[in-house]
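Let us begin with a simple case.
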Amino acid sequence: MRLTQLDLRPIPAAASLARLSGADVAGALAQAAAEPEPANRFMRMFQVLQAMGQDALALEMQAKALERRCLYRIAGPAAPALRLLALMGPGTMLDNAPLDFLLEGSDVRLDLLYLLPGAALPAELPEHDVAIVALAESQKSRPLLARIEELIALWPRPVLNHPQGILRCARDRAWQVLAGVPGLLVPRTRKLAREELRGADLPCTIRPVDTQAGKGLERIDSPDGLAAYLASHPEPWFYVSDFVDCAGADGLYRKLRIALIDGRPYICHLAISAHWIVHYLPAGMEASAAKRAEEATLMQAFDIGFAVHHQQALQAIATGLGLDYVVIDCAQTRDGRLLLFEADIRGWIHATDPPALFPYKPAVMQRAFDAFRAMLLARAAAR
């Protein structure tokens, strides 16, 4: 592979689109349609349509972009302190680590290289100081991750997040990798075909394989409930996990998102909900001053509180997965253990929450972003 200074016309960062209102998004779509370079035009339309939640149409635009070119430069500094190349696969933000959210406003240049099944590498690659595998684990990504594993064996620059570590994030594998760690509870998770589900232990949680953001996730308490679930979900394969009730004394459920960067934990949010499926937006954090106050307290005392209490478990996760950068969703059990829901590189960590409502977040998130940048610089210097 030949590295050279490629002249790529940059496209906006997806992070910049996350703050746009409906009217702004319409304007961004018009700007994307006016982009003179065809590949950039389609990729920009992909970004905007994804921000609008139009994933099917967005993927059509992405496919048109990748027919023309597989390299894209995210708008950034004219004179970067470091050049990062992300190895991606086709798909949405749920298929790749959204790295531009970590690098927004930094002095790191981000280039995206989309690798396609069966396609050769471009004849020339952009000069870069370090590369990172950004393709997340899924059934469809596994052949591409295997190919990336072969490619990076001869890569001319340091590469972060090797595919073998990413594969250890699979829901039915992570619990085996991390089983038996003192102070850590990872619910047993199995990948089962439809015909195997009749013998599942109850209560359990179930979701179709390769779904994210709670899609298709339900708690099953009875054989009738399982039958009803299967009647409404035609998928052939499912992840089935033991259900762990981690509600607090107030009856509310809490989920922390933590980034493990170079082995160290960085808090990214705390979501508090009356429902056992806890996601930040549905949890209503913006509407509750009490919830935000609890999040602020936890985030500001994280390094001397939660991170210290669960230091051994957090370190074991980082070591067991063997990833330079990974995001975990977790909680604390009633007996004080760390409860791991999932570990993945695709988790969205960002600074897009309105600072008027979340004044405590910018400084906390900047610590994570600074740690990510410092890790990149250290890896580049060690080559």
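The second case is a distinct protein. As before, the sequence precedes its structure tokens.
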Amino acid sequence: MKEEMTTKKAGDSMLGTIVNTIAIVIGGLVGLLFGQAFPEKIKKTVIQGIGLAILLIGGSMALQTKNPLILISSLVFGGIIGEGIDIELRLQHLGQWLERKFSKKGNGAGFTQAFVTTSLIYCVGAMSIMGSLESGLNGNHNILFAKSMLDGITALIFASSMGAGVLVSALPVFIYQGSITMAAGLLHGVLSTQVIAEMSATGGLLILGIGFNILELKEIKVGNLLPAIFIAVPITLLITRLHLGM
């Protein structure tokens, strides 16, 4: 009975990733079959609508904080670490290296290039990481559901121009996001409710940044702010201890 409950809980936490994977496959198939029939202006308007929804999701998550000082401190120290490492630049270099490695001339070059390019787009980013963490920690799939809509539309666009390699990118998305979700689920029993809430609130602000980027309102280096999600853990514990000690 206990094993059945554990299996069910694991399946529930994976729901966001499963939906995301299916969305990429369906979007890719529609793109292969009917992609050319969708005007560019329709695609752009739908993506803008999703961008607005992402702002709503991020804002509602950020409001979960019980102490804005934790958010501010996490973003400051996380930003310092992220800029020092320059996460966004390193991810960009990784993508370029993988594209050069797998996009050599040959019979399957086009297929491989489509697979590598879209895999990186779908896997690399704060939305993928934060959405997977949120699914594992809180069983909240809203971020990954929003990401699924975005990925489905972009899969449609990419598949219509790049081919069937886009569909195969659903596999690394499932493995990558699923691994993060399962790892986060293991931490759920270790981290306190307050710590999880502050991690989610900090991640919510980063999701807001993604929304701004999608709507092209302001370019924010969300990747370089990713450490803030994890910095929120020791800061929350420290502030809690200081509060209890007063």
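The chain has one domain: 2-245. The CA atoms of residues 12 and 139 lie 7 Å apart.
Keep these points in mind for the review questions at the end of the chapter.
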